[in-house]
Amino acid sequence: MSIATIETQPRVAHVGFGRDKLLVEIADGRTVSVPLEWYPRLLHATAAERTDWRVMEDSDGRDIIFWEQLDEMIPAVALLSGVKSRESQRSLDRWLADRLDEAQMDEINALIAERIRGPLKVDILGAEFRRKMKEAGITLEDLLDGLDEIREERWRERNR
Q1: Which among 27, 40, 29 has a CA at the least distance from the CA of 89?
Q2: What residues have CB less than 8 Å from 52, skipping those under 6 apart?
Q3: What is the mean pLDDT of the chain?
Q4: Which of 155, 153, 130, 158 shows the shortest CA–CA distance to 143?
Q5: β-pairing, 31-35 with 21-26?
Q6: Residue 45: which domain range?
Q7: Whole-model pTM above 0.70?
Q8: What is the domain-level CATH number for residue 55?
């Protein structure tokens, strides 16, 4: 005797957000609720960015929720299977660095100046600087670590 199995793919009906949850309504009536921390780009997104989603289909016809502004794609089947984002920390750090606005750059400038205990030219912290950091694959953490090393080296030179 043979048994026929029917596999249906979940269809996304609606996407919403709780205070710290991603809520997805499936067309068959189920609602999936997962922590936003599972998807860091959604966690760091503004409310407007979160609501700007659409459903796409992959080459096999499976629903994928897509946030173009965030460059985030989550397959509906992954939500039902409990699969978290697999984005690397390095990739997320680059994405977050690209989102920095001028006010945040001023805060970073103050932090860097405090860490190196000396004057810092503000003009290097602009769009050109961010672009060059991105091209070189350097994160803010890498930059601050390098500044710490320079400070320690200068201290050693002075105390010889």
Answers
A1: 40
A2: 67, 68, 69
A3: 82
A4: 130
A5: antiparallel
A6: 12-81
A7: no
A8: 3.30.2020.40
